Description:
The protein is an alpha/beta fold. Helix 2 links the parallel strand 2 (about 80-85) and strand 3. The protein has helices at about 1-45, 90-105, 125-130, 175-190; strands spanning about 55-60, 80-85, 115-120, 135-140, 150-155, 160-165. The protein is elongated, with a radius of gyration of 30 Å. It folds into 2 domains: about 1-50; about 55-190, 3-Layer(aba) Sandwich (Glutaredoxin), CATH 3.40.30.10. The longest helix has about 45 residues, at about 1-45. A 6-stranded mixed sheet has the order 1-6-5-2-3-4. The mean pLDDT is about 85.
Amino acid sequence: xxxxxxxxxxxxxxxxxxxxxxxxxxxxxxxxxxxxxxxxxxxxxxxxxxxxxxxxxxxxxxxxxxxxxxxxxxxxxxxxxxxxxxxxxxxxxxxxxxxxxxxxxxxxxxxxxxxxxxxxxxxxxxxxxxxxxxxxxxxxxxxxxxxxxxxxxxxxxxxxxxxxxxxxxxxxxxxxxxxxxxxxxxxxxxxxxx
Length: 194
């Protein structure tokens, strides 16, 4: 009888240990599987807003002056380029003015930046003659580049086209230029080039 009682107790102890082991295994699976499943759902359902802080549009794939068949007009500094359109209207004039104001707003960083004009054969030559100060001018073929007329373009000292700021309506111009200033300051703070 004593042997039978010991066997029953051992069986209950083994059963309890197995039960605890299974619970521990389930807890471990739960701890590791739930985050993976949750991440999968969040990413696939589009519930996640990416942490992008730049205001401009990154130019991807990589594009350089060489890819456009051009020579970099300024090699030691970053460039803020303005794509001169076929006809420069009031919005174009305002974009040009705000680009120059953004350059001034860069403060100490403006020593590392130069404004460049990118012109094509159809660009407004009358506007160019009237508004060009000492900016470098570069002729390009509009069809071979990933930018459009009136875009702002940020180019690194090595000639890589980093970011573009497309034409926006006049309501969003000031906020776009604030974003441009923030992006340029952030890049110049992190960059050792230029």
